[in-house]
Queue: 2 jobs
Job 1
Amino acid sequence: MISINSLTVKYNETEVLKNFSLNLDKGEIYSMIGPSGCGKSTLLKVLCGIKKDYIGDVLYNGEPIEHAKLSVGYVPQNYGLLDWKKVEDNIYLPLMLDKNKKVKETEVLDILNSLEIEDLLKRYPRELSGGQKQRVALARAFISQPDLLLMDEPFSALDAFTSSASQKLFLRIWNKYKVTTLFITHNIQEAVSIGRHVLLMGKVSRNLIDNIDNPTFGVADSDMEKMQLANTIVKKFEETV
Ligand code: ADP
């Protein structure tokens, strides 16, 4: 669905991504992990069309991404909610902005229900906990039914318990709607829990070190195997330093 070939991105003269290539298949979920500053957010900026001055090809179904009719959902670290709008207005914002997009009321209710936020609709973001804000941000992303969902360390500001609960809720709803997703994290356990494919980014290479199919994805009671995979990933990083 998304095909990135020999992508090079610079800020001034400094190369942040170099000859980067990656394919994202429709309905799949990819987690990306790499050290701070290795270009993960820059890649998201290219995919959501904010950064346009790059070298190489970034295609959506064969068409340059700038010209393609691609709707992108984005969930940032700080939730990205509008403080002056109530939860319900935040959630419906993408639909208000794109009048062509129609979503069934039953689906909206299902998403609100799955994320346990039906009772929060009349509140303002300042009246929510971090975990609640995150669930509102997820609801907004799923209700807009994007072709591509980009998530930039969405759970990193949450405490460990809330983060773990949010991961589970997210995976539950993802499994229902299977939106093509690129999920960025700096937490190896999270990368292994969320991604069916785990992409390892290197800072020195400014490119992917590896693209690992995660055999534990969706497998119940696979904590031990997930831990082993996380250890393998740590070793791969150490070998590249
Ligand atoms: P990551 O998300 O992996 O932490 P980023 O994509 O945010 O990495 O940044 C990659 C590199 O590009 C870093 O060295 C960062 O300082 C630099 N960078 C990011 N944005 C800009 C910018 N707007 N201008 C100049 N340098 C930038």
Note: The longest strand covers residues 14-24.
Job 2
Amino acid sequence: MTFNTLSVIGLGYVGLPTAAIFAGRGVDVLGVDNNASVVEGVNRGEVHIVEPDLDKLVRDAVSAGKLRAATEPEPADAFIIAVPTPFTDGNKPDLRYLMAAAESLGPVLKKGDLIVVESTVPVGATRAVSERLASLCPNLRFPHQGEDASAESDVHIAHSPERVLPGHVIAELTRNDRVIGGLTPNCGKRAAALYDIAVEGQCLLTTAATAELVKLSENAYRDVNIAFANELSIICERLGVDPWEAVELANHHPRVNILQPGPGVGGHCIAVDPWFIVDSAPNDSALIQAARTVNDSMPAHLAGKILDAADTMSAPVIACLGLAYKADIDDLRQSPAVDVVQHLAAAEIEIILAVEPHIETLPPELEGVRGVTLAELDAALESADIVVLLVDHSVFKAIDRKRLDGKQVFDARGIWR
Ligand code: SAJ
């Protein structure tokens, strides 16, 4: 079971680090992305995402001749699909990128190849990939078509969800245990042999459907737990109790571990994946749906409190510190902080100074929005009447509290208590 060549489809937050790590272990890796500027950048040894240690890993792999990139797949022993699986406006899984990636492999697939879907997908999607490819490659036998000892499939397909935490991707890619769900047991074994090259954690074998649900459950579990913390913070507010102190004290109990309340849940995973479960089981997922509603309601709740304060001032200047979806990263996807700023702008606040040290231009949602400008931290603190802390970036934790004197402060992350 040797893998001399690997192709990683999708060079984003997961695909690019994965490609670089396998290349670092001596595999000849081709990264495939339909964005030509990403491909050109990787071929120059450059990265387009902020992730600690990734730049050196990619630079070294490219200069060693082990990693290159292209816009179209080429034949390889194994393929890892790591493309986005967003949701539609109606909270339904959008599998267009996944299916397009699968279809792009049709022309290069051959007997003996392995395909691993790493993208987070609803239950049944890995099988759907197999079915789609079978219709494109009638001369090859695919795993959903049945496999026994005498008729092993020509192509092996498995799901092995990525579980890495942005900001810690390189360490987590190698150290985390991997759940590997083969469409057949043989598919699982082959995928485990691939990950053995790069992963120090355990490879835990199961079915594709179980692996799909496990990944969704992990993120839904976190979403539900954050929703508990957020709901508790609203209860605390009503009762005049400091929510962060209450959480900290409750967590001294040996079997209690409440997460941190905040302005809502963002990112491309936890705010999305629970919907994939809801879509598959709408009548059996009341708790998961309620958690989504609680977390999604947090930005409007916070904005309401800020606007109440703004109503007592004439022409207030509001500084919003942080636009990223969480601390010390540049990722603004589904960010509750952006949502809060949108609410303030919609209420016609004249001057909203958005401070986000990790970006150079406002995101599309705020670009050209009346009243909103991207500002430097010092200038924003200087002129603000209201300071809203939205993201617990290290640089904001270091702010001298005296600079907040005389200002109305909304600390949505509890860092200035
Ligand atoms: N958040 C809180 N309070 C908390 C923890 C998080 O409000 O106590 C908020 C964050 O500010 C952020 C959101 O939740 O807006 C999500 O952040 P996160 O750090 O919990 O998770 P992600 O989205 O960066 O990464 C998650 C991880 N999943 C789990 O921890 C179960 C990661 O391991 C997954 O690989 C990743 O989703 C993914 O790609 O699915």
Note: Residues 147 and 171 are 36 Å apart (CA to CA).
